[in-house]
Amino acid sequence: MSWREIAAEEIGGSALRETVLYLLMNVPGLPPIAQAIHIAAVAVVMGSAFFVGLRQLGLAVGSQDPNEVISRLMPFMWWSLPVLVVSGVLFVIARPDRYFFNPIVDIKVICIGVVVVSALVIHAPTRNHSDFWTRSRLHRTGSVVASACLILALLGIILAGRWIAYVDYIYW
């Protein structure tokens, strides 16, 4: 048995899944509320990360200091990620087979990892040195590479997020 089969079977037969399904079916409005919270958190992460990435690439608000943009917007992304995890896990628990056996989920998870690593690469150095990304040409090049990875991975998450639902109709 693969880890996916084991995970799907364990979650599928768990009391936690029964509780989540009970809540989703019996708490009026819970599914759309949870989805709305998830989508709002997606908007915060996407908005803050896209803007930081675009600023680092020189494609947005050139009049603002890039390090100021990072220090102002990245905390919004970091605080929204746990909300995304909790709201996303709710739906994974409710339908484990849909997520563990869907190849598009793998793409989304990889893109999420790239976003987190890229955002850390962009944000972490500025916490101790506010001028880090403007110090040298090498630092600027690193910023451009990390920002390009960040933006491409964010686009991958958007596309994969939509395709997760459509793959159900294509393959199953």
Descriptors:
172 residues, mainly alpha, 7 helices
Write a brief structural summary.
The protein has 172 residues and is mostly helical. The chain has 7 helices and no strands.
Description:
This protein has 172 residues and is mostly helical. It has one domain (3-171). It is 84% helix and 0% strand. It contains seven helices and no strands. Helix 3 packs antiparallel against helix 7 (137-171) and helix 6 packs antiparallel against helix 7 (137-171). The longest helix has 35 residues, at 137-171. The two termini are 21 Å apart. The model has no long low-confidence stretch (mean pLDDT 91).
Give me the Rg, rounded.
19 Å
Biggest sheet architecture: none
Number of strand segments? 0
Return residue spans where pLDDT drops below 50 for at least 5 consecutive residues: none
Helix content: over 70%
Span between N and C termini? 21 Å
Mean pLDDT: 91
Number of helices: 7
Question: Could you spell the SSE succession in H and E letters?
Answer: HHHHHHH
Instruction: Supply the helix-strand structural class.
Output: mainly alpha
Provide the number of structural domains: 1
Overall, the morphology is elongated
Percent strand: under 5%
Note the topology.
Elements: H1 3-12, H2 15-26, H3 30-56, H4 66-94, H5 96-100, H6 103-128, H7 137-171
